Amino acid sequence: MQNEERNLIPRTKMFAQRIIRLYVALPKNNAVAQVLGKQMLRAGTSVGANYREGNRARSKAEFIAKIGDCLKEADETLYWLELLLDENFLPAKRLQPLVAEADELVAIFTTISKRSRGDL
User: Fold this and answer.
1) pTM
2) What is the pLDDT of residue 7?
3) Domains of the chain, with CATH numbers?
4) How many CB atoms lie within 10 A of CB 59?
């Protein structure tokens, strides 16, 4: 495993923690915010869990599949964050750093996936 990929373990955990804190900050009295937040919470916390599983993969195919799951969940998290941003449930200043991090994670997992499959 490359060194920058190993650094994704704490990075994805920190991402999950930031997602949790964001969910807690959402308005409790707004049903739409809560639904979008729960979707974001589920997807955002599964990125790191899938990455940890991928690092324990028994085969290259299993690793590639788990990285694909990481990519899917990171991209889905990005979608929910964009909706929360578009609907102004929290200030853009609060959401933008997480949107940027989700976008970076999508790019990173895309690259890892392509490299693992031999597409790069």
Assistant:
1) 0.91
2) 85
3) 3-117 (1.20.1440.60)
4) 8
